[in-house]
Amino acid sequence: MLLQFIVLALFGMAMAHVEGVVVVYLRKAIGLLDPKVDNRQALDQVPRRYVQIEMTREAATIVMLVSLAWLMGENLLHQIMVFLWTFAFWDLFYYVSLYLLIGWPPKLTTTDVLFLIPRPWIAPVWFPLGVSSLTIILIFLLYLLPYC
């Protein structure tokens, strides 16, 4: 069980890096690569068609994570743990990847557009980092620690 969750964490980190690279290319393509640009303001500069395309990428990401959880989970509780664990590593390391690639976010209080579905979720970067970190810690303590 523990090995499975280590592999899921690696999967989440790899998926985060792929998404981070895609976001760097997208920002470069639409001229928003400046790490000082606030994402809330940048969203207003992005043509609506590109926002809709980005929404399909977000939906595909969630479908991939749900599919992984469904395939790997032994029961509903295990599927939920797989989803939350992998999601948390993906979300956390997405920001790590962006920071290493382009120096964004410049600080933890930087505002980000977390999701666009069903409408933009906007919060400082520390919020998803905190929620993801707490999710990882809680799943480890409550679900995985007995397997150590």
Question: What does this 3D model show about the protein?
Answer:
The chain crosses the membrane at residues 80-102, 122-145. Keywords: Membrane, Transmembrane, Transmembrane helix. 72% of the residues lie in helices and 6% in strands. The longest helix is centred in the N-terminal third of the chain and has 28 residues, at 2-29. A hairpin with a 5-residue loop joins strand 1 (111-115) and strand 2. The chain is globular. It has one domain. A two-stranded antiparallel sheet has the order 1-2. Helix 1 (2-29) packs across helix 4 (76-102), helix 3 crosses helix 4 and helix 4 (76-102) runs antiparallel to helix 5. The model has no long low-confidence stretch (mean pLDDT 92). It contains 5 helices and 2 strands; from the N terminus they run ααααββα. 22% of the residues are buried. It is mainly alpha-helical. The protein starts with a helix and ends with a helix. The chain has helices spanning 2-29, 39-45, 48-72, 76-102, 126-144, and strands spanning 111-115, 121-124.
